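assembly run, all chains below
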Amino acid sequence: MTESKRKIINDPVYGFITIDHPLIYDIIQHPYYQRLRRISQMALACLVYPGAMHTRLSHSLGAYHLMGLALRELQNKGAEVTEEENVAARIAILLHDIGHGPYSHTLENTIVEDVIHEDISALIMEKMNEEMDGDLDLAIRIFRGDYPKKFLHQLVSSQLDVDRMDYLNRDSFYTGVHEGVIGYDRIIKMMIVYNDELMVEEKGIHSIEKFIIARRLMYWQVYLHKTVLCAENMLIKIFIRAKELALHGEKLFASPALAFFMQQKTNGIIFAADPEYLAHFCQLDDFDILSAIKVWANHRDSVLSTLCRWLIERRLLKIKLSNNRFETMELEEMREALSKKSGLTGTALDYFIFTGTAVNRTYNVTDDNINILFKNGEIKDIASVDNALINKSVSIPIKKFYFCYPRV
Amino acid sequence: MTESKRKIINDPVYGFITIDHPLIYDIIQHPYYQRLRRISQMALACLVYPGAMHTRLSHSLGAYHLMGLALRELQNKGAEVTEEENVAARIAILLHDIGHGPYSHTLENTIVEDVIHEDISALIMEKMNEEMDGDLDLAIRIFRGDYPKKFLHQLVSSQLDVDRMDYLNRDSFYTGVHEGVIGYDRIIKMMIVYNDELMVEEKGIHSIEKFIIARRLMYWQVYLHKTVLCAENMLIKIFIRAKELALHGEKLFASPALAFFMQQKTNGIIFAADPEYLAHFCQLDDFDILSAIKVWANHRDSVLSTLCRWLIERRLLKIKLSNNRFETMELEEMREALSKKSGLTGTALDYFIFTGTAVNRTYNVTDDNINILFKNGEIKDIASVDNALINKSVSIPIKKFYFCYPRV
Amino acid sequence: MTESKRKIINDPVYGFITIDHPLIYDIIQHPYYQRLRRISQMALACLVYPGAMHTRLSHSLGAYHLMGLALRELQNKGAEVTEEENVAARIAILLHDIGHGPYSHTLENTIVEDVIHEDISALIMEKMNEEMDGDLDLAIRIFRGDYPKKFLHQLVSSQLDVDRMDYLNRDSFYTGVHEGVIGYDRIIKMMIVYNDELMVEEKGIHSIEKFIIARRLMYWQVYLHKTVLCAENMLIKIFIRAKELALHGEKLFASPALAFFMQQKTNGIIFAADPEYLAHFCQLDDFDILSAIKVWANHRDSVLSTLCRWLIERRLLKIKLSNNRFETMELEEMREALSKKSGLTGTALDYFIFTGTAVNRTYNVTDDNINILFKNGEIKDIASVDNALINKSVSIPIKKFYFCYPRV
Amino acid sequence: MTESKRKIINDPVYGFITIDHPLIYDIIQHPYYQRLRRISQMALACLVYPGAMHTRLSHSLGAYHLMGLALRELQNKGAEVTEEENVAARIAILLHDIGHGPYSHTLENTIVEDVIHEDISALIMEKMNEEMDGDLDLAIRIFRGDYPKKFLHQLVSSQLDVDRMDYLNRDSFYTGVHEGVIGYDRIIKMMIVYNDELMVEEKGIHSIEKFIIARRLMYWQVYLHKTVLCAENMLIKIFIRAKELALHGEKLFASPALAFFMQQKTNGIIFAADPEYLAHFCQLDDFDILSAIKVWANHRDSVLSTLCRWLIERRLLKIKLSNNRFETMELEEMREALSKKSGLTGTALDYFIFTGTAVNRTYNVTDDNINILFKNGEIKDIASVDNALINKSVSIPIKKFYFCYPRV
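ok done. output:
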């Protein structure tokens, strides 16, 4: 008994997303892909933007949809893209985030030390490729940037990739910060391939500027919102503390997959070498994390239980943001006051009083440039066109310092 | 140190929601209310509509927002609503779903037997009222329909309440089924109070018709979508099996709160009488459930582990829908075939092969009618106006039969 | 020097509309088509819905866009549509309203008596076809329903044509009556061709119901809104009076094209026979009409000038709507009162005091049915499916009586 | 018999706009205000963006709506605004464009020489004020910036006024250039009054940046779109030619109001002194203009008739845009070629071959600054905040040169 492998998925952002190829269908059905349903796209941003509950699965489907639109547009303008390349490019973007662990970027390097999600994505793709008898070969080459038609990789990963286009759009949509909405349809209509590279037509300059500004706004207003920074730091502190306790033999409620990572420090080499690591990793998602934290809120270690309870009940630390580094004096005074009040001393205080930095750059002029193709054949970086809004001064990374401390 | 209790929350559906009263602020900060962040509004509908990840918290905030708009409109039209009543009505709607357990309606009566969420809502409100020295007295009276200004209760609960208005709108928004969108702003503009009852002005008739049709569509296309029905039945079967095993002394991974309910059968009387029940209930949310299911997918009981694995990996049972009851013959044949193939016998087969019914009525003419107030002072039920679209034939409940069975 | 005949047009409803064929490009460039820029889609509805200023040109472009989407979908599902048929069907819909005169339906049969716009459309298409050496042959056959693949004509004209889909959507959009928005994308996804006829898949039933209800709502809330009815009747009365005066030799300010039709009565036979009629007709648009009315507001005939001034200044007659015919008595009393006050007598009173009827039927079961194709191969009219919302009672035309009279 | 002076108007951009004051109701009913229905907001931009048919009336209603929202927000934050001031500020914005003539900015100074629309607005307001026994006194003071509470005038006219907010939003909406959409609701939520001046809270910085960038984009992509520039120049040339002909005694079809201005040159002094000028002006709108042009398309003066026919049929001149002034050589060659081909000589050629400049500045640092009020009490211009995107380099006006010439 066969069943149709053609499918239409409702998506609130784009309307309908079409699955029109059996290989793509099979990938979406795969448990590794289905796991992305249980990993939120925006981690704890929902504590500030309660609508933002969307998942890595819906983001990757969205990016896949945009890839299809972009490829069709480029083909209409004469770029050669074979059917096989078309499918492979769409698979590459579908799987680009497959290696994300629970709470996406926030817990990266905390539960699983020293391995970035891009590397895990690559490992998982390899594993799926084995199962699928090499059907993902081309997708993997495009993902890695190891394929002559460079624009295919640029659509997957560059400063103008469909990944960014989808997440900006989607995150705007779900947070309700409408100002982050970008004219993705217009940007795609302006794309063109030249010398196998992705370019933007001259008349798309203002749309690109707007896209870059929307991204800037989303960073400072949403992704690096001070309350979000604070909550995500609390989550990290919780796992540092919990792992510390676990490594000292303390018993902690945890699912088997989570327990595996709590009981040992990992690194990239072991992770790649021992398949058990990847197998356990692929069992992990946000549900392991939050259900554990809820139980730990009653743990006898007061540092752990306090942080957990506060996070669950949204009683977050206070946070100050500044363009300048905070004075050591101020921290010291806070520590003394907290110590006096709570009885905590030494490193225990570091879980409640700490500083950090948030950095973002509006546009990076030295990497993966967005190139404008003028009618006269000239090519210029978006930061170098006449009357550029996105000029060099905007490409300097902006760094902000933050300082978290308990409500007295 | 005091902090402002005024707050603006971004909401993707309405833009901004304003918290402008200290009592409302305190309720939202309460751990019981914060728990609603971890209870999805649409349970497993996200398996069909991947965008639909929104929570009970965002729904109740939305309904609260609509209540504010509705009260302002009614006041502009001369209805007397004191400041105290205004706050109380908004609190009543904010808390109307506070008693929902994990996966909302799906697991109602499964984890906690024999208690409906409305009763639990009432218990929780009472508990919060105690903590808050009676500040919720009026809100509770309105919630219960025990207050002379009947329209306040009707806004909380009737066929034209702000609860429905928000969930239709919100669920449409997040599923991407735009056809469920209702003209909530126009409906609110058409509301009027007459003899302390909520009515709709004559020129709002078509908007009300549209609202009722939108609801009908959402039921058949979304809430009772056959794949959603199937997934939700699987979830119920999982808990029936798990509880059965637990009551027979089988060890099951579970958070303490979940374990509490797995180890005993409850009923409404015990629940109301013994505060420990409510205390544990208020610890439960979707995370306890799904993290347990993930672990149970490796349980030695093959009925439990199979169902759990299938649900996690979205390998759902097949389902047929029909206007007529299924023949016993067909079921029997299926059972035999499955028995032969799997070795399962007797009641174990009931977990994989079963039937059920889905019922919805477009409009109920006998309860909580939507009344139209004509310019000449006449009052008519929406189903009785001239040329009514929502006529009596539409008010008959539609019943569909479904039949679930494994993919061979 | 050639120029590209590929073009992208921004459309607020659909985003981008693509002109991708030289013949289509040439049609759009034609002065007959460009005239549609100066004919409003909704005539005087803008007096109630000030946002509704869109034109026949934007509507026909929108319908053309939907035709493209529908054809692509049907082709994906296996319907055979040649490239030539595809272009012809899109041209047929592009030109379906080319014969509309000023203020669309309102002045039909008033300025140009006894000729309906469909016939004029046919005449204009023939004329363009001559100019274009027969390139429109196939489009004209499809438009006329004179082509074997019946579904092509059904997409142009039936109860589920892209004409309706666009105007409902577009008129909702521009009036701000969001309740008229239909799920055009979903409806198109549900279309299928069976035996060369257009059908809808089973799972599209609720979307079709919603579409029919949205149309019903738009009729009663917008197109037949009582103030709109009133204004449109005033416009008609103005032209009846003006033509009467002109035929009696009274001098009236008018553009040459308008003057041509003011000085003689037409009929369908002359119109078709004498090319001068069509030539003048193709010069007429809303601008001839309104600029004349503005000047007539100072005409010495007080009936004409009063009606013109009132319309320009939006001092509309009053209007009553009723399900029953108005009593002759009431009219007579009004006439006497007005006569006493204004000195007007006899037929002059008929311009200010008059009755009429507005009729609409939600769905016509006897013509151009919308057929549902069930999975089991069965075909049923949407009004005959189980639990049909659009049942026979809904297919009876609803008739409302109105009565216009001056503000005292 | 009185009638209610409360009214709700559907607006596609904001949903519902409420008229809640008798004076405001009367102003909207006034023929001077109703004239704005017949003046398009975006003049000939509809030749490029066919959806953009909206009128000055809908824009001014929209700005009035935003004024209401802004005043309510400022009052909630403690700014003192009396009921009288509230009404007056809303009237001031309602009437801010009352002096616009046909085709708004395009024909300013062409039909009526040497008078800007702001001055005409002031004259009309004075005239209405007389009729209304001084009820508009306060509104006029606010409009003129002659009232101590400076923020009221700033809301009417400054770089952050509700005029801009509405037109950016509305023009984006109707053109379909979604990238021009601004977060008007968020910007309003961030407004605050300090020392009687309008400021923006610190956390609104990014929204303001986005607003300024959206405006920049709308200028270059829409208002100064090269095809729009071209069409608007053709319209101006038509009127220069027509007036020239009329002043030489040539007979031209025109409505009486238009004829009045065709037969004489005006200036600001006569206009203000002789009430007949204003009276005729208030009769003029887009319909006088376009209906005349249609007739002139057959005028015996070939310069006039050619330009008119081309404009009506959208056969526009070609246009080149450049950052640099065009060479005289290039123009001369064009003139010679056209002269040879058409037989036109001397100044007649200037109607078909001409140059001009388009200028826009993203933000003006020297006038009407947008000030940010920081939490620590500091005030900074948006162009001076840390890491400003809107820095001084962006405030330099950008000038582009264009060159129009006939096809072949």
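The interface with chain C takes residues 177-179, 181-183, 186, 206-207, 209-210, 213-214, 216-217, 220-221, 323, 362, 386-387, 389, 391, 393-394, 398 of chain B (CB under 8 Å).

The longest strand of chain B covers residues 398-405.

not gonna interpret more than that til we talk
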